[in-house]
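Entry 12.
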Amino acid sequence: MDELKVFSGNAHPTLAGSVCDYLGIPLGQAEIFEFSNENIFIRILENVRQRDVFVIQPICSPVNKSLVELLIMLDALRRASAGRITIVIPYYGYGRTDKKDQPRVPITARLVADLLTTAGADRLLTIDLHAPQIQGFFTMPVDELTTLPILAQYFEEKALDNLVVVATDIGISKRARDLAARLNAPLAIIEKRRLGNIEVTETLTIIGEVQGMRALTVDDEIDTAGSLVGAVDTLLEHGATEVYACCTHPVFSGSATQRIASSPVKEVVVTDTIPVTDNKKLDKITILPIASLVGEAIHRIHTGLSIGAMFE
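Predicted 3D structure (tokens):
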């Protein structure tokens, strides 16, 4: 495993290229295309025998195609006798289906973990999982990075006064508390309830004081932006003077960007774990790069250094 190799599927080649620039190595060459019958074909175009291989592929839109592409690439690398295969999944799709919260439903996050293991992955590197227990779905080593320092630095440089950090639900409160501590700001929590499987939430109440303060909402991802818009409106109704928002994963599905554009939110700060296409970019959406975070983690895994030391 002397030689480091980094490959990418079609989900986010721009991120993979930036990571390779940080590492000072070329991106691994692979042929990836789809036959007319929609079968995906992948061929690794260079020697990977006994090499330390990393595959960068978020499980993002088109989700199922990205996942199958990753599985096929893992199989190709395993059959090419790669020494160790680390999957770098900045955004873990299906992560929200992490438990049985209704009768007769799957735990798809666990199923995806089993598929990745069977396909040949030896290690997982990911960022801000939706739920911490997903790490336990894998029998392989899992390194979970966080974009919290990147987001915190951005808002430290903005130097917003009279700031309160707001968790958009109870589940994200720990991450929001950590961000609040970094920004030396108080914490508030929005209590909400999801209405069935229709991607609609009902805001119930705000725990904490936001009257006369600038609010910064925190979440792991923004999907349809329905929850974000509801949170912004609720915070303004409770006396917040301005509302900013931040999250790690900009899923932005459906009419998310239209909702953000028409919302009174001042700025939405995200990272590039998922590619944001030109038609989804707005002046009020700020995208922070994560290539150095991922690149440094890959370097440390390859050389046997501590990942945890990156955040100390």
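Annotation: The helical segments are 13-23, 63-79, 108-119, 148-158, 173-183, 226-237, 256-262, 291-303. The first strand starts at residue 4 and ends at 8.
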